[in-house]
Amino acid sequence: xxxxxxxxxxxxxxxxxxxxxxxxxxxxxxxxxxxxxxxxxxxxxxxxxxxxxxxxxxxxxxxxxxxxxxxxxxxxxxxxxxxxxxxxxxxxxxxxxxxxxxxxxxxxxxxxxxxxxxxxxxxxxxxxxxxxxxxxxxxxxxxxxxxxxxxxxxxxxxxxxxxxxxxxxxxxxxxxxxxxxxxxxxxxxxxxxxxxxxxxxxxxxxxxxxxxxxxxxxxxxxxxxxxxxxxxxxxxxxxxxxxxxxxxxxxxxxxxxxxxxxxxxxxxxxxxxxxxxxxxxxxxxxxxxxxxxxxxxxxxxxxxxxxxxxxxxxxxxxxxxxxxxxxxxxxxxxxxxxxxxxxxxxxxxxxxxxxxxxxxxxxxxxxxxxxxxxxxxxxxxxxxxxxxxxxxxxxxxxxxxxxxxxxxxxxxxxxxxxxxxxxxxxxxxxxxxxxxxxxxxxxxxxxxxxxxxxxxxxxxxxxxxxxxxxxxxxxxxxxxxxxxxxxxxxxx
Length: 492
Ligand SMILES: *Cc1c(COP(=O)(O)O)cnc(C)c1O
Description:
By secondary structure, the chain is an alpha/beta fold. It has 18 helices and 14 strands.
């Protein structure tokens, strides 16, 4: 048996148990018989033949009667277990166990600032799709969309290839175009602002609250102007912005300016967070909310994103932008003469031509695959466990860092409950007689990877060159990033 295992490069333990008690010799013989090995090579021995100093009982079998009674079922006999072992060996179970073991032990000793958690169930969900008829655009996409929509309490969900493509599609659906302005946060991942630039619009940065690093409603109000088309509040590290206040400000500005201004929540950090007792993503105070399923986020699909909305018209537009601007929904067709079969009479029973589709916008291939959505569905079931684990880690960090004067632990607003996508303390490096680079390098030497969240977007060379942004645009980030080393929390 060991030679077989070595030849197949297997490692690990297969537990073969049962209700019957058996000597090792008998067990070896039955195993040999079942596997067709030479049983005459097995010789009986007794521990009496070894002059052990310590006394050891001969029968070490466990009594299983109580366990069987509690389970209300009999354990298998040893022969049943050996049969199962044989069948598992035939159908490749040891190889599968090996593969999963290899995956688990592949992690290096360094503690990265975020890491996904994929387990057997997730792997099997993806493999099932691989063996099915659809790799993309099959049933899993709609299932995943429905599951996330239900989880957060939104009416519609449109899954896309990434959080970035979801942000772009959301801006397009909101009608952002050249000459428009889009207000967002400077303390975010660049994608929150890039989506405006993709549409030919100008990103405008509103200053942040130095405690939460979220945009301040009053600062958003200051930046609303004649050309403002969209506001994109970013829920930094998972903690919701003050959406009710932002909603009030935007509605008031709409009245003043006499046109619509959409609100798109960048909720890429915030799946599982609550705002005023309700899940982020419900869009109670916004038109759309965007999620990302990149592996550092709460649940993953590899790459992937989603737009949530309660507006059926936005949902339709998002689906079109996701797929080349195409539609095959008869209710949306514009060229009626081409779209429908000619019939005599009043045309009350018009049937669409079976080949017909229409391109109505310039869309993209921003589709997500069934493989990815199968992973997402499986991961979504684990969201609460992921959240609980992060909370445990955060509590430990708070306990450890809370008493240290030069470290400010993350502020948690009473308005919400954050999922802690990131754990971001603020360090006073002067008081620590070091600087950010030295501190990060020393941590890295100890196997702990940290990152700064974030370098303000308006200070990036691209933004300075193309949009003329300057440090003075948002003074608060300069204060908070001068010495901040944002230290991210991982589940592991
Ligand atoms: C991750 C992230 C994105 C982009 O998501 P991708 O899926 O990586 O494209 C956008 N905004 C924020 C705030 C993010 O953290």
